[in-house]
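pasting for the record
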Amino acid sequence: MQFNTGIAFAQNFGIQHAITKGAEWILLMDQDSDPAENMVSLLHTALLSNPLAAAAGPSSVDQRSGRRSFFVLDNGWWPQQWAPKTADFSSPPLSVGFLIASGTLVRRTALPTPAPMRSEWFIDHVDSEWCLRTRSQGWILLGVPDAVLHHRLGDKVSRIWFLRWRQVAHHSALRDYYMFRNSILLARQSYVPLRWKLFFLSRLVQFAGFFLVFVPQRQHRMALMAQGLRDGLAGRTGPRL
């Protein structure tokens, strides 16, 4: 192909190929991810121990900052961030709200079609949408803290103070468009619980506050965010025109 078809199209292509080869377990990976030697075996063990689990994902460690990511739990009225407190990552698998695609091991029987990802969303929230849709069908998702993936989220990472010190990943300005558009599209899905709609919309407010204050190209980013909001409300999908 001579053009970018987006992450979801690429994932569907790989999933279809794996299914034709008879795969029972499918591992999703980004090109800049580096799994620990035992990552896949730990994810596989977690899935074998729970037949209701559609997928299991690792704890990501940023390759630049060394900072470990958190899981988002769905145990109450509002999604909560959680990270193990032990330095050796020794914690049992836990049910989580969603998983980042890279490093996730998926059970074949949790894929009702050979093209489960919404390719028309192109990029951003493709994994979130699949996770919430899959959970609405009765499956659960497992976060496996002992399984480690070294990963690069974003083009760079900044450390800023906003009520507390935070590590914020930067993407290109164009990603602002997809983040805003697809967050609106996600919030419009009937199977997404209200608390998750509000959660993702509240993240847009935080996202805009950071990138319009601390990052260059403010006017350009603002225009892309506004276009993303308009296209999300209009239900437009595919690559940005």
